[in-house]
Amino acid sequence: MTLKNTTFLDACHRKEPEHTPVWFMRQAGRYMPSYRQIKGNLQVTELAKNSQLASEVAVDAVTRLGVDACILFADIMLPLEGMGVWFRIEENVGPVMLNPIRTIDDVNALESFNPERDTGYIGDSIKATLQKLDDSVPLIGFSGAPFTLASYMIDGVANKDLVRTKTMMYKQPETWKLLMEKLTKMVKDYVCFQVKNGVHAVQLFDSWAGCLSAEDYEEFVLCYTQEIFHSIPDVPKIHFCANSSALIQPFQRTGADVLSVDWRVPISEVWRKCKEVAVQGNLDPAVALAGGDFMERKINSILEEVKQYRGHIFSLGHGVLKETDQINLGQIVKKVHRGTKKRA
Ligand code: CP3
After folding, report:
1. Whose CA is nearest to atom 7 of ligand 1?
2. CA 327, CA 64: separation in Å to the nearest integer?
3. CATH number, domain at 101?
4. Which residue lies with its CA nearest to atom 5 of ligand 1?
5. Ligand 1 midpoint to CA 2 (Å)
6. Is 289 part of a structural domain of the chain?
7. pLDDT (0 to 100) of residue 158
8. Is 24 left (phi over 0), alpha (psi -120 to 50) or beta?
9. Across-strand partners of 142?
10. pLDDT at 1 (0 to 100)
11. 160 C-alpha to center of ligand 1: Å?
12. 91: CA distance to ligand 1 center in Å?
């Protein structure tokens, strides 16, 4: 089957697309009235485990916004259940761990993950989403990266200093290494399972790695991400991290095809430092709250900045905020398409 819209994959491969592709992290989310309606009283994890509904919200967002890629509807925490890690996701807080990982015994007790057994519903969701997309746009699969998953497992709730996570990393290096090795194995198996089921690209969310210095990132994290990217066959690999200005150079060595950066890092700076990558980003999600002329000015300034480079995927620097008006996101898509369309 051939995709009708290849702009996203073209940009990932740094080929010239028909127009600059656009998609948004959390494009299927609470800001969207139709999402809220389909979700009803379900928890986000229940919604993600219902392949019919999960595929419906993922594809509904694509149709309503006119974006150039669909993202699988799931959550980075879900495969951890297969390792015996239990959590709930609290509104406006995020994941809260019921059995945080603090000692070597906790790490030793983690079970091994089996993608078919533990996340069979993800395979079903991918198939259902691909069927509903009917080759209109590509489907992006994803996983949390070991560091970001470890930070939830150890700290228990996200906190900006990651106190317990860093304490384990610095004071119990053997425990840290074993945990990262186990998570790396899980992520590799999980992502390869998604590719086998048909996703066209994969994004690794290392959302909280930005709290590390480049030196610590290289010592405690980089090799695991490299191992994951090197194990993924054939599809483009996107690396996402927030607050990542200090880490751009090490990210280049992860093996990612695309670096997804937030609004604090000028995209042209990423390209000055890293020649061989595509870049995704980086409008501040708060600009999409503002809308209007201000939003237009900010979109133009990104398009102007990236004009001389090849391989830009227009996106927000982080997920869509729940206060966002869907109309503004639709306007971003139209504006970027119009502003970058190549004449035939
Ligand atoms: O459209 C998409 O982007 C696909 C779906 C998706 C979700 N979570 C669904 C979801 C994706 C890609 C994620 C990834 C995810 N989950 C990350 C990495 C991205 C990032 O934000 O850095 C992280 C850190 C999580 C953990 C998590 N799950 C958080 C922090 C939250 C928000 C809690 C809140 O209420 O603010 C969740 C819940 C969640 N996952 C929602 C969605 C749409 C919102 C809750 C809901 O719809 O009920």
Report:
1. 75
2. 9
3. 3.20.20.210
4. 73
5. 30
6. yes
7. 74
8. beta
9. 203
10. 63
11. 17
12. 10
Please report whether residue 2 resides in a domain: no
**pTM for this entry:** 0.97
User: Is the minimum distance from the CB of 278 to ligand 1 under 6 angstroms?
Assistant: no
How many folded domains does the chain comprise?
A: 1
What confidence tens digit (pLDDT) does each residue in 41-51 have? 999 999 999 99
207 lines ligand 1 (CB under 6 A): yes
Q: Is 303 touching ligand 1 by the criterion CB < 6 Å?
A: no
3-state secondary structure of 282: strand
Regarding the beta carbon of 321 and ligand 1, being less than 6 Å apart is answered no
Residue by residue, DSSP assigns 187-241 as HHHHHHHHHHTT-SEEEEE-TTGGGS-HHHHHHHTHHHHHHHHHH--SS-EEEE-
Tens digit of each residue's pLDDT (9 = 90 or more) over 126-141: 999 999 999 999 999 9
> For residue 1, is it within any domain?
no
| Domain assignment of residue 94, given as a range | 7-340
Indicate which atom in ligand 1 lies nearest the CA of residue 26: 3
Question: pLDDT tens-digit profile of 241-286?
Answer: 999 999 999 999 999 999 999 999 999 999 999 989 999 999 999 9
For residue range 282-316, what is the model confidence (pLDDT) as tens digits?
999 999 999 999 999 999 999 999 999 999 999 99
